[in-house]
Hints:
- The complex is a heterodimer of chains A (262) and B (66).
- Chain A is 37% helix and 16% strand.
- Chain A has helices at 29-39, 62-65, 83-96, 118-130, 143-152, 173-182, 196-204, 214-217, 222-242; strands at residues 8-10, 13-15, 19-21, 43-50, 72-75, 102-105, 134-139, 156-159, 188-190, 209-212.
- Chain A has a 3-stranded parallel β-sheet. In chain A, strands 6-7-8 form a 3-stranded parallel β-sheet. In chain A, strands 1-2 form a two-stranded antiparallel sheet.
- Chain A starts with 7 loop residues before the first strand and ends in a 20-residue tail after the last helix.
- Chain B is mainly beta and 66 residues long.
- A 5-stranded mixed β-sheet of chain B has the order 2-1-5-3-4, with no helix packed on it.
- The longest helix of chain B is centred in the first third of the chain and has 7 residues, at 18-24.
- Chain B starts with a strand and ends with a strand.
- The chains are: A alpha/beta (262), B mainly beta (66).
- The A-B interface holds A 22-26, 32, 45-53, 57, 61-63, 73, 75-76, 78, 84, 88, 91-93, 95-97, 164-165, 212-214, 217 and B 5-7, 25-27, 30-35, 38, 40, 42-43, 58-66.
- Strand 4 of chain A pairs antiparallel with strand 5 of chain B.
Amino acid sequence: MSENNDTFSVAGREFSSRLLVGTGKYKDMDETRAAIDASGAQIVTIAVRRTNMGQNSDEPNILDVLPPDRYTILPNTAGCYDQKTAVRTCKLARELLDGHNLVKLEVLGDEKTLFPDVMATLKAAEELIKDGFDVMVYTNDDPIIARELEDMGCAAVMPLAAPIGSGLGVRNPLNIRTIVENAKVPILVDAGVGTASDAAVAMELGCDGVLMNTAIAAAQKPVLMASAMKKAIQAGREAYLAGRMQAKRFASASSPLEGLFF
Amino acid sequence: MNIQLNGENTPVDDGATLTDVINNLSLQGSRYAVEVNEELVPRSEHDRYHLKEGDSVEIVQAIGGG
Lengths: 262, 66
């Protein structure tokens, strides 16, 4: 694989950027736009919520700031704790986006951890796939569940690095590696990345991409962090493709021992 | 009659259509999607979808999210 055309594809769509970003928690739309621009992301997530009736009606909509003809919009089911609301949310999103059928499914199981309810996730994924959706699914870092979701026909499997919004980094790198090694669909780390090195670690493990929001939006300087994340994703990807050296316990001199003049 | 509009008890004319409700909210031209009683109603059906007393209508849009 050449580094120059190192793209990845999800559900028949091809992307050169392996950084996917959320659009929540920004100060305002200008900051949202600037950070997403700096990230180089081509896929951006959005949430579906009740229309704001009355006040702030002249505030621009997120889809005016991030037009669907320029970005691949990935509606999420954030805030859904059961199969039914997750499926309803996806159907509304498809209608909202004129039939666009790529969605990020997350069915949460617990407010404290925001860990996925895996049983409900499996059922919702099955229903959505049957209904013609391309499902990118948020799940635990469990290789067996990841394989199940892939077998079911999910377009991408997205294990968490750590709890959503925690910024703890990849807590279980060996599981992420196992998931990657088993998979034929793209594996993206979704949630838990805190800083650039975390994103690089995920990519060095062989992930196809990383989806993040809070790590950028909650940085002191979100636009600068977006730029850092873009570079970390590229660096981690290149390091993965390059194949790292074996780690050794003891030293190994870098300069030749032959030809010493003393 | 009254409907539940995004969770609020809201008076509308008897026999009002979804399009009437949407026009009252000045949402024409923006991106939204509509559910009645937890079922999606496609845009193409809004004109002829007549609401009934007590119907629960949800009108949603895209917002920033992760």
